[in-house]
C-alpha cells in the first residue's frame, strides 16, 4: 500500500493543502516549525482516527477555524481508496470510497483494509520519529515479537483484537495488583469471610471450654448440693438447739433447784405411814370395843348353889364331868342291855317250854341226820299220798261199783259228784301239803293235790261202759286194795325209822312234821342263850362303870347321895352346862381380854412402828413427814418435768450440754447458717453459671453461624474458582492466540534480524555486523567480533540500530503489510556521514516500501527526482 | 445379630460448588448432613440394632464445627440411653486429636486408637462379635494397615473397620489396601469408609463402602445412605438404606429450537415442571444447543449472572419441582480448531506452548497463595477443564472470525 495523495482540510497549521506522493521515496523538506510532525500526525489521524479530546495537543485541530480533517488517497492492491475524516465522535467521521470502482464503502472497513497495522503499530514501527528512535533503549525481543506478531499473519488483527478483548476481560476479572476486578473483590471477600469464620471458629475452643466447664460445674454442683445438705442438717441442728435453749435453761434451772432428797419419803413410805396410822386407829377402836365387851361379860356372872359346891371341888368333879357323856351313854346302854336280856330270856323260856323234855332241850340234828330225816319224811309223804290216792281210788271204785249195782238213778249226776269229790280231795291234799314241814314236802303235797284234782275231774271220768266197767272196777278195787296194803307197810317202816331218829335226839314226843320247826327253835334257843350270856357280861361291865362313877360323884358331892342316878346325871349335866357356860363366859372374857391385850400390843407395835418410821427419817412427827413427803412429791414433779424437758430436747440435750454459753451456740448457729448461705450462694452461682453455660452452648450449637459462614465461604470459593477459571481461560486463550500468532510469524523474525543486520551494517558502515535478539535484550556484534548490549551503545549507534530494525521489519513484512514508512526528523542525532548512509538505505528500500521522509536537511534532496521532493514551506 | 454400618457423615461440612444459594436453601443445606446422620441413628433405634459402626469422617476436624460436636454428643447419648454401643474409627478428616477431647463421649462409644485394636462384644443373644479397627492419628496414613489387623478371632463374628482407599499403585495417603488382603483375614464383614460412593467390593463376605450419608457436591450424585447388616445363618446380609436429605443430579438437555436465553429459560421451566423430584434435588443442567447463543448471551451464561437472575425469578417453579438448578452448563461439542486464515499447525504449536503446567502455574501466579484456589488449581481436572473451556472459547471466536471474514 502506498499513499497517493494527502488532502488537508484543516489540520494544525495546514489548511486546504494537497500533497501528491509517489510509491517510492518521497522527501518533504521544511525547516523546524514547518509542520513536519503535523504531517506525520495527519497521516496517522486520517488513517487511524483523531486522538480523543482528552489529549488536545495531539489532535492538531486547525488554529484558523477551518474544517478539521482531511482525506487520503491510497493505493491498496491496485485499488485506489479515498479515506476522508472530519471531526466527529469516536475518532472522527470517516468516509471510505473505492475510487477504482467508485464505490462508497462502510467506514468500518477502513481498519480491515489497514490491518494488521493500527495506530499503535504505525506509531511504533512505521512512524519513525526522533522520540521514537530514542525508545530503542527499551527495545527488546518481546517488543519486537509483539510488533511482529502484530503483523505476523493475515487476519491476525482479528485475533489480536480478540486477544486484547480477552485480556481486557481477564483484567476485568482479575489483576494481580488490582482491587476492582471481580476476583480481587472475591478474594477480598474471601479474606474477610475467612477472618469471620476464624472468629466464629473461636467458638469451637469456647465450645469445648464450655463443655468442659459444664462437666466440671455439674460435678461441683453435685458436690455442693451434697455439702449443702450436710450443712443444712448442721444448721438445722443448731437452730433446733437454739430453739431449745430456753427449755435447756429451764432444765438446767430445775437441775439447780433440786436439793438432793433423802430416801424414805417415797409414796410407798407415805403409804406405809398411812397404813401404820390407820392400824393404830383401827386397833385402838377395836380395843375400846373389846373393853366394853369385857365389861359386859363381867357383869353377866350369876351362879347356882350346886355350882358353889362344885367350885369347891372342881378338881375332883371336873374329871367326872368329863366322863359324864360316857357315863350317860353307859347308863343308857345298861338299861338297854337289861331290857335285851329280859327279852332274850323270855324268848328262850318260850322255846324251852315248847320243846324241852324234862327240862332238857332236844339236841339239834347233825347235817346227815337232817338229810336223812328229810329223805324219810319225803318218802313218807309220798307213801302217805299214794295211800290216800289209792284209798280214794278204792272209794271211787267202790262207789262206781255200787252205782252200777243198784241201777242208774244215781248215775244221772255221777260226774258232778265225783268231780267235786276229786276237787275237794285235791284241795285237801293241797292244803294238807302246806302243813308238811319241808318245802319239798309242801311242793310234793301240792302237786299231789293238783294231781288228785286233775285225776278226779278228767281221768276218773273216763269210765267205760258199765258192762265191762263192772268187771274192771272189781279188778281195780282189788288191785287198789293190794296197793293200799303195800303202802301201809312202807309207811310203817318209814315211821319206825323216823321214831328211832326222834328218840336218839330227844324228839320222841314230837311228830315228824314238827321236827323241822323244832330244829329251828333249837338253833334259835342256842343263839339266844349265847346272847344272853354276852349281854349279861356287858351289863356287868357297864353297871360296874356306872357304879364307880356314881360312887365317885357321891364322894365328891354328898348332896347327890341317894338321889336317882339319872337325876344325878341331870344335875351333873346342869352343873356341866353351868360350868361350860361359865367356862364359855370365862373364855369370852379371856378371849376378849386376850384380844384386848393383843390389840393393845398391836396398837403399841403400830405406834412403835410409826415411831421407828419417823425416827429412821429423823422426824418428830408425821406432820413433819408429810411436809417432807410433800417436798419429795414436789421434787418428783420437778424431776418428771425435767425428764419431760429432756425428752423434749431429745438427742439435742447431750449437744446442748456441751455448749458453754448461749452466745457460743448463737455464734455457731450463725456460722453454720452463714455456711449454708455461702454454700447456697456458691450453688446458686454454679447453677446460674450452668444455666449460662447451657445457654451459651445452646447458642453456640444453634447459632449456625459457623455453618452459614462455611457454606458461604464454600459458595464464595466456588464463585472464585469459576471466576478464576474464567480468568484463566481468557488469559489462556489470549496466550494461545499470541502463541499461535507468534508461531505463524515466528519464521519471519530471523529474516527481520538478518535484514536488520544488513541495514545496520550499511548504516554503521559495517562497524557493526550482526544483531542478535536475546529473550530480554538486543545485542550487536562489532566488526571485531565483540558483542555489545544496546545499553552499551552510543545514542547515535543505538538509534541506528532501532532504525535498522524498523526498516528491516517494514521491508520484511511488506509481503503482508505494505505501509509507508514515515520518517519525521528521525535522523537528527545522526552525523552527516551516518545520515547519508541512512538516506542511501532509505532510497534503497523505497523500491519495496513507500518512504516518506520529512526533514529539514536539504542535502538529502541531492540526487532525488523532483517529483519526489516537496517543499513544505511552499 | 443386626448392626448399622455408616461412614463419612461429614457433619456440618458445606456443600461444594454452589455459587448462589437462597437463604431458604442455605438453611436446608446446612441441616442436611445432620438430618442424614439422624436418619442413621433413628434407624439404629428403630431396628434396635446391636451396635453401630462409624467408619471415619464423621466430621471435619479442621472445620472446628461446634454444631457437629454438639450433635454427636446428643445422638450418642440417645443411643446410650438405648444401650446401643457405637464403634468409631476416625478417618482423615476427623483424625484423632485429643487436645479437645477433654469431655469424652458417652460410655457406649468406643473410639479406636491409632494402633489397630480389637474390641469384643457379647450380644444379648449370647453371640460374640470382635471388631477390629484403628483411627487416623493425623491427616494421612500412607502405609497399608491391613497387616496390623489380627487374624480372625474365635468369636461368632469378626468385623473389620477400615477408613481407606484401594491401593491403586500410586502415591497413597489413605491407608491403602487391596481387597485380597482383606479377604485373607477371613473376617465376616469389612466396614469401609472414605470413598463417598457406596459400593460393594466383595459380595461374600461383604466388603463394603457405606458411602457418605449426604452428597455434598455435584460429583456426589445419586442416593446416599448407610447399610443395615443382619445375620442370616453364617453370613451377613447388608441392606442399603437411603439417608440423603438433598440429592444431587446432573441432567442432560438437548434443546433444538433454542437460540436465546429467553427461550432457554422457558425450556428450563417446562423441563422442570415435567421432571419434579421426590426429594429436594440440586440439579446441574447440561444443555446441548443446536444453535449457538449470541456472544452476549454466552457471556451472560458463562458469568453466571443469567442463572442468578433466573434462580431468583423462577424460585416458585423450582420449589414446585423440588429441584434447585445450581448450574446451567452449555455442552459444546469438542471443537477442532479450524481457523481458515491461520494454519492449524500454528494453533497446535500455540496450544502446545500455552497448555503446559509451567505456563499454567506461572499464569496462576500469585493466586497460588490462595489456598481455596490453589487446592482447586492443583487438581488434574482443573487443567483439563481449563483447556476444554479455552478450546470452546476459541471455537466460538473462530465462528466469529468466519462471520467476520465472510
Structure, described:
The complex is a heterodimer of chains A (874) and B (406). Chain A has 24 helices and 14 strands. Chain A is of the alpha/beta class. Chain A has helices spanning 36-48, 56-59, 109-114, 119-126, 130-134, 141-152, 156-173, 182-257, 267-299, 305-312, 314-355, 367-404, 414-433, 439-459, 466-504, 512-556, 565-616, 622-649, 652-658, 662-703, 705-746, 748-763, 795-813, 832-845; strands spanning 2-11, 14-20, 25-29, 69-76, 79-86, 93-98, 103-105, 127-129, 768-773, 778-782, 787-789, 821-824, 851-855, 869-871. In chain A, strand 1 and strand 2 form a beta hairpin. The relative contact order of chain A is 0.14. In chain A, helix 8 runs antiparallel to helix 21 (705-746) and helix 12 packs parallel to helix 14. Among the domains of chain A are: 2-152 and 747-871, 3-Layer(aba) Sandwich (Rossmann fold); 365-504, no CATH class. Helices cover 70% and strands 9% of the residues of chain A. In chain A, the strands form 3 sheets. In chain A, strands 2-1-4-5-6-7 form a 6-stranded antiparallel sheet. Chain B is α/β, with parallel strands linked by helices and 406 residues long. Chain B folds into 3 domains: 2-242, Purple Acid Phosphatase, chain A, domain 2, CATH 3.60.21.10; 246-331, no CATH class; 337-406, no CATH class. Chain B is 34% helix and 22% strand. Chain B has helices spanning 23-47, 66-81, 179-184, 261-274, 295-303, 305-313, 315-321, 344-354, 357-364, 371-378, 380-405, and strands at 2-6, 51-54, 86-88, 109-111, 117-122, 128-133, 157-163, 189-193, 199-202, 207-209, 225-232, 235-242, 247-255, 281-289, 323-330. Chain B has a 6-stranded mixed sheet, covered by helices on one side. In chain B, helix 2 links the parallel strand 2 and strand 3 (86-88). In chain B, helix 1 runs parallel beside helix 2 and helix 4 (261-274) runs parallel beside helix 7 (315-321). The longest helix of chain B has 26 residues, at 380-405. The termini of chain B are far apart. The interface between A and B is large, with 61 and 67 residues.
Amino acid at each position: 500500500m502506498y499513499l497517493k495523495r494527502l488532502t488537508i482540510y484543516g489540520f494544525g497549521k495546514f489548511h486546504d493543502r494537497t500533497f501528491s506522493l509517489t510509491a517510492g521515496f518521497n522527501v518533504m523538506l521544511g525547516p523546524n516549525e514547518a509542520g513536519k510532525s503535523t504531517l506525520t500526525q495527519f497521516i496517522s489521524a486520517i488513517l487511524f482516527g483523531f486522538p480523543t479530546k482528552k489529549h488536545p495537543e495531539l489532535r492538531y485541530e486547525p488554529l484558523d477555524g477551518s474544517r478539521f480533517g482531511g482525506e487520503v488517497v491510497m493505493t491498496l492492491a491496485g485499488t485506489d481508496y479515498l479515506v476522508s475524516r472530519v471531526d466527529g465522535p469516536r475518532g472522527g467521521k470517516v468516509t471510505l470510497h473505492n475510487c477504482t470502482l467508485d464505490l462508497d464503502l462502510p467506514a468500518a472497513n477502513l481498519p480491515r483494509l489497514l490491518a494488521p497495522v493500527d495506530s499503535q503499530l504505525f506509531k511504533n514501527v512505521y512512524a519513525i520519529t526522533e522520540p521514537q528512535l530514542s525508545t530503542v533503549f527499551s527495545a527488546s525481543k518481546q517488543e519486537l515479537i509483539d510488533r511482529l506478531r502484530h503483523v505476523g499473519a493475515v487476519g491476525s488483527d482479528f485475533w489480536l483484537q480478540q486477544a486484547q478483548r480477552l485480556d481486557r476481560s481477564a483484567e476485568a476479572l482479575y489483576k494481580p495488583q488490582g482491587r476492582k476486578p471481580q476476583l480481587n473483590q472475591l478474594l477480598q471477600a474471601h479474606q474477610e469471610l475467612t477472618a469471620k469464620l476464624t472468629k466464629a471458629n473461636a467458638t469451637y475452643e469456647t465450645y469445648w471450654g464450655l463443655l468442659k466447664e459444664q462437666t466440671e460445674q455439674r460435678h461441683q454442683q453435685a458436690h455442693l448440693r451434697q455439702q449443702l445438705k450436710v450443712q443444712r442438717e448442721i444448721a438445722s441442728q443448731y437452730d433446733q438447739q437454739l430453739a431449745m435453749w430456753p427449755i435447756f435453761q429451764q432444765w438446767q434451772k430445775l437441775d439447780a433447784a433440786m436439793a438432793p432428797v433423802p430416801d424414805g419419803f417415797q409414796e410407798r413410805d407415805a403409804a406405809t405411814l398411812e397404813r401404820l396410822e390407820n392400824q393404830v386407829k383401827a386397833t385402838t377402836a377395836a380395843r375400846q370395843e373389846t373393853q366394853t365387851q369385857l365389861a359386859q361379860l363381867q357383869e353377866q356372872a350369876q351362879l347356882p348353889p350346886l355350882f358353889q359346891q362344885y367350885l369347891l371341888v372342881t378338881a375332883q368333879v371336873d374329871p367326872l364331868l368329863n366322863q359324864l357323856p360316857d357315863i350317860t351313854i353307859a347308863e343308857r346302854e345298861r338299861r338297854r342291855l337289861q331290857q335285851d336280856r329280859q327279852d332274850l330270856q323270855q324268848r328262850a323260856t318260850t322255846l324251852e317250854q315248847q320243846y324241852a323234855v324234862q327240862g332238857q332241850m332236844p339236841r339239834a340234828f347233825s347235817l346227815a341226820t337232817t338229810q336223812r330225816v328229810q329223805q324219810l319224811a319225803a318218802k313218807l309223804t309220798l307213801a302217805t299220798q299214794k295211800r290216800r290216792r289209792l284209798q280214794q281210788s278204792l272209794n271211787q271204785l267202790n262207789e262206781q261199783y255200787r252205782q252200777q249195782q243198784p241201777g242208774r238213778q244215781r248215775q244221772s249226776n255221777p260226774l258232778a259228784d265225783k268231780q267235786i269229790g276229786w276237787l275237794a280231795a285235791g284241795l285237801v291234799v293241797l292244803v294238807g301239803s302246806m302243813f308238811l314241814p319241808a318245802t319239798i314236802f309242801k311242793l310234793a303235797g301240792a302237786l299231789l293235790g293238783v294231781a288228785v284234782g286233775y285225776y278226779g275231774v278228767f281221768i276218773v271220768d273216763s269210765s267205760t261202759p258199765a258192762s265191762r266197767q263192772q268187771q274192771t272196777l272189781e279188778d281195780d278195787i282189788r288191785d287198789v286194795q293190794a296197793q293200799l296194803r303195800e303202802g301201809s307197810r312202807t309207811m310203817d317202816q318209814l315211821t319206825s325209822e323216823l321214831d328211832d331218829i326222834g328218840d336218839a335226839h330227844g324228839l320222841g314226843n314230837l311228830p315228824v312234821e314238827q321236827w323241822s320247826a323244832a330244829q329251828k327253835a333249837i338253833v334259835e334257843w342256842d343263839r339266844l342263850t349265847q346272847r344272853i350270856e354276852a349281854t349279861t357280861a356287858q351289863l356287868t361291865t357297864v353297871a360296874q362303870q356306872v357304879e364307880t362313877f356314881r360312887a365317885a360323884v357321891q364322894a365328891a358331892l354328898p348332896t347327890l347321895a341317894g338321889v336317882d342316878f339319872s337325876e344325878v346325871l341331870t344335875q351333873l349335866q346342869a352343873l356341866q352346862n353351868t360350868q361350860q357356860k361359865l367356862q364359855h363366859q370365862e373364855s369370852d372374857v379371856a378371849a376378849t381380854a386376850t384380844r384386848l391385850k393383843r390389840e393393845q400390843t398391836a396398837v403399841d407395835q403400830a405406834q412403835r412402828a410409826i415411831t421407828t418410821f419417823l425416827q429412821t427419817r429423823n422426824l418428830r412427827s408425821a406432820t413433819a413427814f408429810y411436809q417432807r413427803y410433800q417436798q419429795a412429791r414436789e421434787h418428783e414433779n420437778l424431776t418428771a418435768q425435767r425428764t419431760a424437758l429432756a425428752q423434749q430436747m431429745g438427742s439435742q440435750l447431750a449437744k446442748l450440754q456441751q455448749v458453754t454459753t448461749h452466745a457460743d451456740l448463737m455464734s455457731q448457729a450463725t456460722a453454720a447458717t452463714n455456711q449454708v448461705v455461702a454454700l447456697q450462694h456458691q450453688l446458686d452461682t454454679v447453677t446460674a453459671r450452668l444455666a449460662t453455660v447451657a445457654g451459651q452452648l445452646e447458642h453456640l450449637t444453634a447459632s449456625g453461624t459457623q455453618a452459614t459462614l462455611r457454606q458461604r465461604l464454600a459458595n464464595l470459593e466456588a464463585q472464585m474458582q469459576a471466576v478464576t477459571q474464567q480468568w484463566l481461560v481468557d488469559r489462556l486463550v489470549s496466550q494461545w492466540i499470541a502463541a499461535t500468532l507468534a508461531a505463524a510469524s515466528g519464521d519471519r523474525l530471523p529474516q527481520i534480524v538478518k535484514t536488520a543486520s544488513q541495514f545496520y551494517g550499511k548504516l554503521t558502515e559495517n562497524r557493526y555486523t550482526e544483531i542478535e535478539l536475546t529473550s530480554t535484550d538486543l545485542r550487536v556484534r562489532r566488526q571485531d567480533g565483540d558483542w555489545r548490549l544496546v545499553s552499551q551503545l552510543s545514542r547515535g549507534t543505538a538509534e541506528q540500530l532501532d532504525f535498522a530494525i524498523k526498516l528491516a521489519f517494514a521491508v520484511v513484512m511488506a509481503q503482508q503489510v505494505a505501509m509507508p514508512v514515515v520518517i519525521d526528523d528521525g535522523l537528527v542525532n545522526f552525523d552527516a556521514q551516518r545520515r547519508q548512509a541512512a538516506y542511501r538505505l532509505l532510497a534503497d528500500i523505497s523500491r519495496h516500501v513507500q518512504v516518506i521522509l520529512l526533514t529539514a536537511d536539504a542535502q538529502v534532496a541531492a540526487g532525488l527526482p523532483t517529483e519526489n521532493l516537496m517543499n513544505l514551506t511552499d | 445379630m443386626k448392626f448399622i454400618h455408616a461412614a463419612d457423615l461429614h457433619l456440618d461440612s458445606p456443600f461444594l460448588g454452589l455459587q448462589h444459594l437462597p437463604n431458604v436453601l442455605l438453611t436446608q443445606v446446612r441441616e442436611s448432613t445432620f438430618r442424614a446422620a439422624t436418619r442413621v441413628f433413628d434407624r439404629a433405634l428403630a431396628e434396635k440394632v446391636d451396635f453401630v459402626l462409624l467408619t471415619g469422617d464423621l466430621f471435619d476436624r479442621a472445620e472446628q464445627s461446634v454444631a457437629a460436636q454438639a450433635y454427636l454428643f446428643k445422638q450418642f447419648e440417645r443411643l446410650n440411653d438405648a444401650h446401643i454401643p457405637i464403634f468409631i474409627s476416625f478417618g482423615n478428616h476427623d483424625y484423632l486429636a485429643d487436645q479437645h477431647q477433654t469431655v469424652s463421649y458417652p460410655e457406649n462409644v468406643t473410639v479406636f486408637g491409632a494402633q489397630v485394636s480389637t474390641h469384643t462384644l457379647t450380644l444379648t443373644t449370647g453371640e460374640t462379635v470382635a471388631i477390629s479397627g484403628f483411627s487416623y492419628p493425623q491427616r494421612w496414613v500412607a502405609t497399608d494397615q491391613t497387616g496390623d489387623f489380627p487374624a480372625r478371632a474365635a468369636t461368632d463374628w469378626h468385623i473389620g473397620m477400615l477408613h481407606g482407599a484401594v491401593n491403586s499403585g500410586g502415591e497413597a495417603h489413605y491407608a491403602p489396601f487391596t481387597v485380597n488382603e482383606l479377604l485373607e483375614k477371613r473376617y465376616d464383614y469389612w466396614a469401609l469408609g472414605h470413598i463417598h460412593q457406596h459400593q460393594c467390593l466383595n459380595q461374600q463376605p461383604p466388603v463394603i463402602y457405606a458411602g457418605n450419608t449426604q452428597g455434598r457436591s455435584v460429583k456426589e450424585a445419586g442416593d446416599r445412605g448407610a447399610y443395615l447388616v443382619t445375620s442370616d445363618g453364617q453370613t451377613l446380609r447388608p441392606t442399603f438404606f437411603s439417608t440423603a436429605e438433598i440429592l444431587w443430579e446432573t441432567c442432560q438437555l438437548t434443546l433444538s429450537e433454542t437460540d436465546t436465553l429467553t427461550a432457554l429459560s422457558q425450556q428450563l421451566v417446562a423441563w422442570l415442571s415435567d421432571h419434579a423430584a421426590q426429594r429436594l434435588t440440586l440439579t446441574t443442567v447440561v444443555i446441548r444447543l443446536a444453535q449457538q447463543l449470541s456472544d452476549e448471551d454466552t457471556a451472560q451464561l458463562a458469568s453466571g449472572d443469567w442463572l442468578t437472575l433466573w434462580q431468583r425469578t423462577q424460585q416458585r417453579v423450582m420449589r414446585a419441582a423440588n429441584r434447585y438448578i445450581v448450574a446451567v452448563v452449555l455442552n459444546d461439542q469438542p471443537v477442532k480448531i479450524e481457523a481458515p486464515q491461520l494454519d492449524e499447525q500454528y494453533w497446535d504449536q500455540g496450544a502446545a506452548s500455552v497448555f503446559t503446567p509451567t505456563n499454567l502455574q506461572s499464569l496462576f501466579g500469585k493466586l497460588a497463595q490462595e489456598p481455596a484456589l490453589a487446592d482447586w488449581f492443583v487438581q488434574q481436572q482443573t487443567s483439563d477443564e481449563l483447556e476444554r473451556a479455552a478450546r470452546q472459547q476459541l471455537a466460538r471466536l473462530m465462528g466469529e472470525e468466519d462471520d467476520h471474514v465472510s
